[in-house]
Design brief:
By secondary structure, the protein is mainly beta. It contains one helix and 22 strands.
Length: 272
């Protein structure tokens, strides 16, 4: 059987340059070209790219950062104190409240505290007197006794199809009889220093429930040890919030503390 020569003394012509080189120094490229080793070029990797999957587009169970809508908090037992004047003191330790926040009280257990009816503190029990459009600037209620002379109300509305709350917050600038005047529709009220997204102005039917709130007039604080020393090695103190005051339209007739257990405080509208 015939065999090929080893080419020890042979020359070969390069397919690339056309020059003669020792046969044993020739190599074959990926495309079949027979070239000298000094001319060898490897195959470009991009001619045969490795298969890759597309980049992920989203997490399967994403939980993006968001600002939670404010909700109610429990107040301590018997949180309300009257003092025979228009100042109502509310105990709410570490409440993180701000002056001018609009707060709404609920679930007061005692009917009267220092001569002040619980509905006056809760600013509740009112209903619309007559239908209103989404642009009405005067809103008539069944009564406005002892309501703040200006402030915010929320008109409760439930979508009859979806069952979803579609409450509207309204700011009013005055009261005339049973009319709230100078109304700004579809707004929102600050709570803990943050004003939520505005509600949507919409029409409402006669008999819709209406609730109000109070503006925080001042904050109550105390100093307590911070648990460390300052730069002069003196015991450091920190300011701790203990509660706040709101202003009643009519003075309480006596000094009293009450309200009962599990009274709550929250934004005027707790429906996003």
């Amino acid at each position: 059987m015939a065999v090929f020569s080893q080419g020890k003394y042979a020359l070969a012509i390069s397919d690339r340059s056309g020059l003669a080189f020792p046969y044993n120094e020739m190599v074959r490229e990926w495309n079949g070209a027979f070239v000298h080793i000094s001319e060898f070029e490897p195959k470009q990797p991009q001619l045969e790219p490795k298969p890759t999957m597309a980049d992920p587009q989203a997490l399967q169970r994403a939980r993006p950062a968001r600002t939670e809508f404010p909700t109610e908090d429990f107040l301590p037992n018997n949180p309300f104190t009257t003092a025979s004047n228009t100042t109502l003191t509310v105990s709410f330790p570490n409440g993180a409240m701000h002056v001018n926040d609009i707060v709404r009280f609920r679930d007061i257990k005692e009917t009267v505290i220092g001569g002040v009816d619980k509905n006056t503190i809760q600013v509740s029990g009112m209903v619309l007197q007559g239908d209103i459009t989404d642009s009405a600037t005067t809103i008539t209620l069944d009564y406005t006794t002892d309501m703040p002379s200006s402030g915010f109300i929320v008109i409760e509305k439930v979508n009859s199809t979806t069952g979803i709350f579609e409450n509207e917050v309204v700011e009013y600038t005055g009261i005339s009889g049973v009319d709230l005047t100078g109304c700004v529709r579809g707004t929102s009220a600050p709570f803990r220093g943050i004003t939520p997204k505005k509600t949507t102005a919409t029409s409402h039917k006669s008999g819709a429930k209406v609730f109000g709130g109070f503006k925080i007039a001042s904050l109550l604080t105390r100093q307590e040890p911070a648990g460390y020393n300052d730069s002069q090695a003196n015991a450091a103190f920190k300011t701790v919030q203990t509660g706040f005051t709101v202003t009643l339209e009519s003075a309480a007739t006596g000094t009293a503390t009450g309200g009962g257990f599990n009274c709550t405080i929250g934004p005027i509208n707790d429906r996003s």
